[in-house]
Amino acid sequence: MTTVTVSPKFQVVIPREIRQSLGITPGEKMKVIALGDRIEFVPLKTARSLRGFIRGIDTAVRREKDRV
Question: How confident is the chain (68 residues) per 10-residue block, as mean pLDDT?
Fold first, then answer.
């Protein structure tokens, strides 16, 4: 687990290995969510950038006969 320090201006630096593994770039927008006693930063992605990210997924779903 990596530890960061909050600056006097309440800023934090996302460690390099995390930025690289998630592909976070300078200027990218993040959604900040408070969940109980923790904070989560979720990168906002455009719909265009998500196109094809699940390529190859099996879309064959077994359905009940009355749900055709």
Answer: 92 93 91 94 83 81 80
Q: Is the dihedral of CA 13, 19, 22, 17 positive or negative?
A: negative
User: How far apart, in whole angstroms, are the C-alpha atoms of residue 66 and residue 36?
Assistant: 42
Classify 47 in phi/psi space as left (phi over 0), alpha (psi -120 to 50) or beta.
alpha
The rounded distance, in Å, linking the Cα atoms of 4 and 62 is 46
- The radius of gyration of the chain's CA atoms, rounded to the nearest angstrom, is 19
**Residue 29, helix vs strand vs coil:** coil
* pLDDT, tens digit (0-9, with 9 covering 90-100), for 31-43: 999 999 999 999 8
- Which pLDDT does position 61 carry in this prediction? 82
